[in-house]
Amino acid sequence: MMVLQVCGEWFQYVRSTNCSDALLCLLLLTATLERALGDVYLSVSGAPHCPALLKDLLSSEELEQTFGRPAMWCLKAVIGPPTGFNLRNIAWHGFLSAADLNRKFVSFLLIMAASLGQVLESRRLLQQIHHRDPVSYVGKLGLISSVIPPIHEMETQSLIDVIDRSEIIPAWSKDSCIHCIRLLRSDRHWICTVMLLPQLEHILRRIYAVANDCYERVLTAKSSVFYTTFDEMLSPLLLDKKPNQLASILERPQLEYLFDLLSHPEGLRLRDKLSHGEVDVYSMPVQVTDYVVTIFISLCYQWIPSALDSRDESGTSLEAALAGVHKYQVLFHPSAFLRRQIANAVCDVKMLEQLDMPDQLRPHHCAE
User: Fold this and answer.
1) Residues 345, 350, 353, CA angle at the centre, nearest 5°?
2) pLDDT of residue 4
3) Where does residue 262 fall: left (phi above 0), alpha (psi -120 to 50 degrees), or beta otherwise?
């Protein structure tokens, strides 16, 4: 029943007059398709692992034998490697404008998803498909909440003003960003996370291009050139082995924040896991949304010509809400785990002083 409700909601996104909804549908659909096809692959092949890249998954013999070659060719042409439309990568890496997205592609993928389901049903394979459990961030929420304020409780107009005045956000993406922020205080806050992550990558790409004087890396996504993605932007070295100058523009706490959010193996690796369908977005904790929105607004705020003097109804200034970013200390690097373990060990040792010492261990007893 839940699947039918979700699919019905996605069809509503395609029919919506807001072009951002069609882009949201594409992001959700490509991630869900990749995850579902991976489940089918693992179930029919018995392999211990699924191909890491979508293009390799779509080229697998197992899926071709299950769904047929024409279906796999169609998917490869639309969401497969860069030699096709490559819509999945272009959308998730922040190259695609909502206004430039042709809804026919999204409608096609919805129909394809339904058709693949019918194939499984007709071949009586549905009951044999084992679905992997989604990634859970519950165990990380305490750490995140300890350093990041609940930005979703602020008046959204303060955040919208930042986006509207920031010079780092291209004009074609401002409407989509503002649309997301308007949903921040609703039960659909997860939309902010899904929609803002590609925008976060795009504005970070612009900052990276300014820092390293490589403006051509922003303009387009080409089939013959690797995209400039988070991994490259956060690397200490450029492709030509020169030092990455991103740290000359962003503060160290901002970089550590981005590493925790996107890169560290024990961190959230949120864009990775969301884009590959590993996260159940409908049950995403609001703290994760706060984590994304806070760094996004922080970067936007840095590129406003003059500071805003805005306060929400509670009197909390925007600067105070973003102070957590500028004082941020890495949470999910091995050194951070070691630091917390040492702190816990010191606390345990101090608690020993409160315990009564057995008589046989007292100094006068030992002397006897």
Assistant:
1) 140
2) 44
3) alpha
**Cβ–Cβ < 8 Å for 258, 114:** no
Tens digit of each residue's pLDDT (9 = 90 or more) over 135-157: 999 999 999 999 888 898 888 89
Burial 178-196 (b: 16+ CB within 10 A, else e): bbbbbbbeeeebbbbbbbb
Could you give the CA distance from residue 191 to residue 250 in angstroms, rounded to a whole number?
A: 27
Enter the pTM of the model. Answer: 0.89
Residue 291: what residue type? Y
User: Which stretches within 46-102 are classed as H helix?
Assistant: 54-58, 61-67, 69-79, 87-92
Name the residue with tokens 């389901």. Answer: 117
For residue 173, the one-letter residue type is S
First to last CA, the chain: 78
Nearest to 54 by CA among 212, 298, 277: 277
3-state secondary structure of 317: strand
The phi-psi region of residue 60 (left if phi > 0; otherwise alpha if psi is between -120 and 50; otherwise beta) is beta
Mean of per-residue pLDDT scores for the chain? 88
CA–CA gap between residue 101 and residue 23 (Å, rounded): 7
- pLDDT band, very low/low/confident/very high, at 8 (cuts 50, 70, 90): confident
